[in-house]
Amino acid sequence: MELSAKFLAQLLKGTVDGDENATATKFAKIEHGKPGTLAFFANPKYEEFVYTSDASILIVNKDFAPKQPVKATLVRVDDAYSSVAELLKYVTDKKKKARRHRSLRARWFCTTKFGKKVYVGAFSFVGHHTKVGDRTVIYERVYIGDDVTIGKDCILYPGVVVYPGTVIGDRVILHAGCIIGGDGFGNAPQPDGSWEKIEHLGNVVIGNDVEVGCNSTIDRAQMESTVIGNGVRIDNLCMIAHNVVIGDHTVMAAQTGIAGSTEVGKYCIFAGQVGIAGHLKIADHTTICAQGGVIGHIRKEGQVLVGSPVIDAKQYMKAYALFKKAAEE
Q1: Residue 33 and residue 165 in one domain
Q2: Which residues are catalytic?
Q3: Beta-bridge partner residues of 101
């Protein structure tokens, strides 16, 4: 796709500083910019590359004042980083071509209901009484069980498994290998030391605009529902156990694990390898840093927590300074 500086300024509500007819067909990091590419500058530590980059177009903040001559045409916007995110979304949406296609090597039933322009790839399976919304894309080798509801404009990448009874909202992206609706880890100890499996009769309910990364798992509830709120972002290799509730717009990085029946608030941020015990309540706007371990309720909103078990980040840094000093003595 060819993008001109003039068009970019219109799309991103910016202004052009230089040749408005300059064009770019590829994106590049600012340090790798070549003729015909588009790059952006938002972090001051990369300013040296503004003057050496050969990119044709450079997206910058409106208040950027060059200290040296710049080769590229500048498109000035309010926020370069946000504008690039908006531009990438625009380009991605343009590349998507909604079209009706149901491979002869896929399988579904007369009770399966498809919306308009649904794509079903080869060797995929869609179960009885399942409903798939308009323009949803089901790539090759996807399994979708019976009585599943999938909204509009969703994408299910190859290898996704959706167990029976799952409810998925609109514009949900499930990346390759993720599994939605498997049984939770419920086992009852027996007098002889063995374990009796506890059946899980609930389901998983996923809201709108959710993205689940590769090889992540969300278990069905023992009873009622495991709930993933609107706008939640789950990275690769995460584990959400049975009966967990994740509030709207919470994000979690890779290898985060949340044990059963925990309720996570809205707008929380969990860094990589965060572990949260079961039956807890996590307040809204909680941030847990990498490898944080949570074993108790977090009731106060807006905290930044570090460590295992987690404590306030400032308190942790003071404690760590003392610990490090003690080790050096």
Answers
A1: no
A2: 242
A3: 119
